[in-house]
C-alpha cells in the first residue's frame, strides 16, 4: 500500500521588500518549491511584484507590518521592542491599528487584484495584545471567513524537534496561545502547527539541518516559514541567510528531502 504523503505549506515571507526576494519567490513558486508567500504591501517592490504573483498557483497573504517604515505612506510604525511594550501595557490606539491594517489590505487588493488568502504579521506582530483584536475586527468587517486563514504561531511537534530554541519560545510567549484561542472562538481557519523559527544564520547547511528536522516531525496542517532571496541586499541584516535559503530550496537536495520524508507542498486547506 502506498504511503500517504504529509501535506506541508511552505511559506516564503517578506515578498515585496526588495527585488531579490520577489525573484526568488517567483522562481521557487514556478518550480513548486514553495506553496505560499506573505507580502509586505507598503514596500517599494510590492506593486511590480504583485503583478507577477497573479499567475502562480500559491497562497498569497498579507504580512502585516507595524515595525518598519518601508514606504512613504506608512504613518504608524514602531521598533519591535517598543511595540511589544506598548501592546502589553495596552497603550496602542485601536483605531490607529485598525486603520493601518485596513490600508495594507487596500494596497494588497489594489495591486494583487484579489483578496488575501491568509493573514500573518511581520515579526509576528499579529499575535500581540490589541493588535490581534484590531486584526480580528478588520477581518470580520471586510472578509468572508471561509475565504482565508490566519497564521497561528503556536508550535507543536515540528518545532519541539529542534528543542524549542529560545527564539521559538519567545515567539510562543508573545501571544501564540491567546491568538489561537481567539481564532477558535470566532471559528477562523488556522494552521495546526508552525515551524521555521531559527537564528537566521549558518548558511545553507544549517538551514538544511533545520528543514530536515521540521519535515521529519511535521504533522498535518503545518505551515513552515522561510525567507529566500535571489542575491544579497547589503542593507538587509539577514540578506546572506536569505540567499543561503534560496540556494537550498531550489536544489536537488531539497527535493530529495521532501521525498525522503514523504512530504508534498500544498496550498493551505481552509
UniProtKB/TrEMBL annotation:
Which coenzyme or cofactor does it need? Mg(2+)
Which molecular function term from Gene Ontology is one that the record holds?
Answer: hydrolase activity
Q: Coiled-coil intervals in this record? A: none
- List where the protein spans the membrane: none
Task: Give the matching Gene3D superfamilies.
Answer: Glycoside hydrolase/deacetylase (3.20.20.370)
Gene Ontology BP annotations: carbohydrate metabolic process
Has the keyword Magnesium been applied to this entry? Answer: yes
Name the keywords, alphabetized: Carbohydrate metabolism, Hydrolase, Magnesium, Metal-binding
Protein name per Swiss-Prot or TrEMBL: ChbG/HpnK family deacetylase
Q: Which organism is it from?
A: Advenella kashmirensis (strain DSM 17095 / LMG 22695 / WT001) (Tetrathiobacter kashmirensis)
Amino acid at each position: 500500500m502506498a504511503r500517504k504523503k504529509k501535506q506541508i505549506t511552505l511559506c516564503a515571507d517578506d515578498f515585496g521588500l526588495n527585488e531579490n526576494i520577489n525573484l526568488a519567490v517567483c522562481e521557487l513558486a514556478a518550480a513548486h518549491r514553495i506553496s505560499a508567500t506573505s507580502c509586505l504591501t507598503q514596500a517599494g517592490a510590492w506593486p511590480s511584484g504583485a503583478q507577477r504573483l497573479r499567475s502562480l498557483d500559491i497562497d498569497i497573504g498579507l504580512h502585516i507590518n507595524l515595525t518598519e517604515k518601508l514606504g512613504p505612506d506608512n504613518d504608524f510604525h514602531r521598533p519591535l521592542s517598543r511595540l511589544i511594550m506598548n501592546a502589553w501595557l495596552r497603550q496602542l490606539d485601536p483605531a490607529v491599528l485598525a486603520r493601518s491594517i485596513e490600508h495594507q489590505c487596500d494596497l494588497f487588493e489594489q495591486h494583487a487584484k484579489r483578496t488575501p488568502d491568509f493573514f500573518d504579521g511581520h515579526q509576528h506582530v499579529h499575535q500581540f495584545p490589541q493588535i490581534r483584536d484590531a486584526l480580528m475586527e478588520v477581518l470580520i468587517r471586510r472578509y468572508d471567513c471561509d475565504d482565508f486563514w490566519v497564521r497561528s504561531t503556536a508550535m507543536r511537534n515540528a518545532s519541539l524537534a529542534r528543542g524549542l530554541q529560545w527564539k521559538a519560545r519567545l515567539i510562543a510567549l508573545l501571544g501564540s496561545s491567546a491568538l489561537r484561542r481567539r481564532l477558535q472562538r470566532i471559528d477562523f481557519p488556522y494552521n495546526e502547527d508552525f515551524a521555521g523559527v531559527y537564528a537566521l544564520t549558518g548558511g545553507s547547511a544549517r538551514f538544511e539541518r533545520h528543514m530536515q528536522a521540521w519535515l521529519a516531525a511535521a504533522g498535518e496542517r503545518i505551515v513552515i516559514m522561510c525567507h529566500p532571496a535571489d542575491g544579497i541586499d547589503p542593507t538587509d541584516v539577514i540578506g546572506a541567510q536569505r540567499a543561503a535559503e534560496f540556494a537550498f530550496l531550489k536544489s536537488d537536495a531539497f527535493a530529495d528531502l521532501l521525498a525522503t520524508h514523504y512530504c508534498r507542498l500544498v496550498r493551505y486547506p481552509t
